[in-house]
Design goal:
Elements lengths: L25 H17 L3 E3 L9 E4 L2 H4 L9 E11 L3 E6 L9 E6 L1 E7 L5 E7 L1 H13 L10 H29 L1
Antiparallel strand pairs: 1-2, 2-3, 3-6, 4-5, 6-7
The protein binds nickel (II) ion.
The site of nickel (II) ion (NI) has 5 residues, from helix 3.
Length: about 180
């Protein structure tokens, strides 16, 4: 297993529409395992394959998004070729973050409830409902498979502020990485 690099915005891969998964084989299961290790390492609750530079309609979600603390130690949800079957007209505004925008949090309006049809890593079709944070997490990750990121959902002004903060954070991360490299020489 390996921890993969999560691509930061504006990496062009984050604007790509991912291709369908066709082969449910060992390679796919290895990608899922690597993504799970990466998400745990980054302390995230969701990760889409496009965020680690893999052109497949595949995402993973922590059960924490659905069950809170009780879900923390349960196996992650694996969604392959997910489709939105239904979403509620009722929406809710809530805080959202993204591993491609580390340290940036914005308020995003999303449907309160969704129903999704997807396949698991063995190719079995299943349906699941998400509510509140669960719905938010699913929709955020499905967006990634369409090349859509969270700042696409907010006003021009909020987007500008979020991007400024993101650029500042990225500069600080790069400076820290340079410093670490210098020290280890
Ligand atoms: Ni994200």
């Amino acid at each position: 297993m390996a921890v993969l690099d999560v691509l930061p915005y504006p990496n062009p891969f984050l604007r790509k529409r991912a291709g369908d998964v066709e082969d449910f084989d060992d390679r796919l299961r290895q990608i899922v395992a690597d993504m799970e290790e990466t998400m745990a390492d980054e302390d995230g609750i969701g990760l889409a394959a496009t965020q680690v530079g893999i052109d497949l309609r595949l995402l993973i979600l922590s059960r924490y998004a659905f069950e809170g603390e009780a879900g923390k130690d349960k196996p992650n949800l694996v969604m392959i070729n997910p489709e939105i079957v239904w979403e509620s007209d009722e929406t809710v505004v809530g805080e959202e973050g993204c591993l491609s925008f580390p340290g940036v949090f914005i308020q995003v309006e999303r449907p309160q409830k969704v129903r999704i049809r997807a396949r698991d890593a063995d190719g079995e079709t299943y349906e699941i409902e998400g509510e509140g944070l669960g719905a938010r997490a699913i929709l955020h990750e499905i967006d990634h498979l369409e090349g859509v990121v969270m700042i696409d959902h907010v006003s021009h002004l909020t987007r500008k502020r979020a991007l400024k903060k993101h650029q500042r954070n990225q500069k600080a991360l790069q400076a820290r990485a340079r410093e670490d490299a210098r020290k280890s020489r």
